[in-house]
Design a protein that fits this description.
Elements lengths: L5 E4 L4 H17 L9 E5 L2 E6 L2 H17 L7 E3 L3 E3 L2 E8 L5 H13 L6 E4 L2 E4 L1
Length: 132
């Protein structure tokens, strides 16, 4: 009998993230409460940058962004939000998109598999866990 295996991976579809960012920018541009305001959501790889004139507007933009991401099938728990920075007349927040499984979580997964007493092996391979 040959060995079967599968990988446990945590990946986010970056194309869907960029689509959600575009939709957020379009919606924010047409909303009445943002008329005349300089607000923007930018994306640079795995980093999203929310910019507005106040912290309240940042909260509103973040809510719209999270709804658009959820609607497109992106798990919002994969986002890591930093604190809102205010400087003068601008507010800014950085949101990171996490890819892969961090080492601590991978170790916990391997430990759970080993304590289950099943005839399987779990190994950590970079940012994924292989069960065979």
């Amino acid at each position: 009998m040959s060995n079967f295996s599968f990988d446990i991976v945590s990946e986010v579809d970056l194309h869907e993230v960029s689509n959600a960012v575009d939709q957020t920018n379009r919606e924010v541009g047409t909303r009445f409460d943002f008329k005349g305001s300089d607000v923007n959501v930018g994306q640079s790889g795995l980093i999203l940058a929310l910019e507005a004139e106040s912290e309240f507007q940042i909260d509103q933009i973040r809510d719209v962004l999270l709804k658009k991401l959820a609607k497109r099938g992106v798990d919002v728990s994969a986002l890591e939000e930093e604190a809102v920075e205010t400087s003068g007349r601008r507010a800014r927040q950085t949101v990171r998109v996490r890819q892969g499984i961090d080492q601590d979580t991978a170790r916990k997964m391997v430990k759970l598999v080993k304590t289950s007493k099943l005839k399987v092996q779990a190994t950590i391979q970079a940012d994924q866990v292989r069960i065979s």
